[in-house]
Amino acid sequence: VKVKIPFGNKYLDAIFSVPEKKPTYGVILTHGAGGDMNFPHLVSLAAYLASHGVLCLRFTCKGLNVAYRTKAFKAAVEYLKLCDDYKLSGVFLAGRSMGSRAAASVIRQLSQGDDDGFIQGLVCLSYPLHRPKLQSKLRDEDLLLITCPVLFVSGSADEMCEKQLLEGVVSKMKAPKKIHWIDKANHGMAVKGRTADDVMEEVNAQVFSWLRENVQL
């Protein structure tokens, strides 16, 4: 179902992937710095979640400014919260690469205000912990302040998320957290000798089983 999410004086393009049965929980999903909501990994995950009873709202927000992307993500959260078609008990925020930074930023900001418990957790696909070859400057400030459950799905060969560095950050996080490493995958989740579909099946199954650990699906 295609929808337009009000965002300031503009609209964000978005698509609902709707399960057959009435969903209790949802996932809001967005893309990285390049691409849009039709990025194959997002389409694949949204379809998988919907087929397993989880509503998925994915949206496009162009712009390479994290603060701007965070505002857009907030607009999507508000939209879903007030959406009469789906009365959800809660929602998980999920993003790929830069989208996961925006999701983390939203959760940190909302948890400092009046947190109503609507947001259940955070899913970070290929979280960009640092710029390539610039491991000294970590983008961990939001992660360290979040208290809701967090799942990281990252490639063990991700040039923007060195394994030991992410494990170090995660060990300092207050939130319940889990990392699933995709063996030999790069930042784009490509693995030599494996098809993209095969890798996505692993990612999708991991995300869904983690959601199920955290809420009654």
Automatic annotation (TrEMBL):
Domain of life: Eukaryota
One Pfam match: Abhydrolase_11
Residue ranges of every copy of the KANL3/Tex30 alpha/beta hydrolase-like domain listed in the record: 27-210
Chain's gene name: Tex30
Name of the protein described by the UniProt record: TEX30 protein
